[in-house]
Design goal:
about 260 residues; alpha/beta; Rossmann fold; 7-stranded parallel sheet; 8 helices; binds NADP nicotinamide-adenine-dinucleotide phosphate
Length: about 260
């Protein structure tokens, strides 16, 4: 059980990040919640405090490296150390590569990969100084494969996966641990209307429980849910022609 820890969650105002904050709030933690929407963060803080933990809201647009760095500084200013950071910002909208613009792709790369970088650098500096810490990233099973209609999202998450893998090896001597979390389809508000088929979808609450298990186990890679994770593992070792046939099922009939 994670208790009596200082935990920063970036991307906590809704969906999976919000659920993780609420579950952790029952165990006497100090929880810093960050995202752009102040009202949602303030409401979440009230719930966290009611559940017995301390809470702090830091509104921040993580596309700005200055704001992300400032968020880390404010957290340390309040609680002195950060034991765990869950970097959960991201979005995987439908991308039709014959219709999308270059700017839309760059924006999505910034959102899924750039925000990770913007938090990673100041967090690593702080945790190296502290001599301990755990940085977790909510990646996606899409980060293992080039999914149809999700190409830019898959690519940005693949970059995040590789960066976290490097950090894990490089920064081990400084006591910093890196946990990469790879969810399959989760029934969050954000994905309800995107029109992409969502096989083996699980609830937001079940996803949050998985994420906390990943943090507790300090797993290098944590893939879930079971069936989708194993399909992805299989797809990685099958000949590409077979993998492509499988992935074609995720392509909508009309696009
Ligand atoms: N849902 C799924 O099926 C699924 C599957 C695999 C992986 N994931 C990953 O899980 C994570 C959470 O997704 P979710 O479904 O829970 O979606 P969500 O509810 O939209 O959560 C995304 C969070 O990121 C924040 N955010 C977005 N842009 C930001 C920015 N520029 N600066 C700071 N914060 C920003 C959002 O808050 P504000 O809008 O208030 O800024 C929100 O708190 C994402 O990384 C997603 O890629 C989701």
């Amino acid at each position: 059980m994670i208790s009596n820890k200082t935990i920063l969650i970036a991307g906590a105002s809704s969906g999976i990040g919000r659920q993780v904050a609420l579950l952790l709030s029952h165990h006497n933690n100090r929880i810093i919640v960050s995202a752009r929407r102040q009202f949602e963060l303030d409401t979440l803080c009230k719930e966290i405090i009611t559940n017995g933990s301390q809470a702090m809201a830091i509104p921040c647009d993580a596309l700005s490296s200055e704001q992300a760095e400032d968020c880390v500084k404010q957290s340390i200013g309040e609680f002195k150390t950060i034991d765990i950071a869950l970097l959960n910002i991201g979005d995987g909208p439908v991308f039709n590569m014959s219709k999308t613009s270059v700017d839309e792709i760059h924006h999505n790369t910034q959102l899924n990969y750039g925000t990770l970088v913007n938090f990673l650098v100041p967090l690593i500096a702080q945790m190296k100084w502290q001599g301990h810490g755990l940085i977790a990233h909510t990646n996606s099973l899409a980060g293992f494969l080039g999914l149809p209609m999700q190409g830019p999202y898959s690519a940005a998450n693949a970059a995040g996966r590789i960066l976290m893998d490097s950090c894990r090896i490089e920064l081990k001597p400084f006591g910093i641990k890196f946990v990469s979390i790879y969810p399959g389809f989760i029934a969050t508000k954000r994905v309800k209307t995107d029109g992409i088929p969502s096989p083996f979808e699980i609830s937001e609450l079940d996803a949050a429980k998985h994420i906390i298990r990943a943090l507790e186990k300090e797993a290098a890679d944590y893939l879930f849910p079971f069936i989708t994770a194993n399909l992805v593992r299989l797809a990685k070792i099958l000949p590409k022609s077979l993998t492509n046939k499988l992935l074609t099922k995720l392509r909508p009939a009309h696009y």
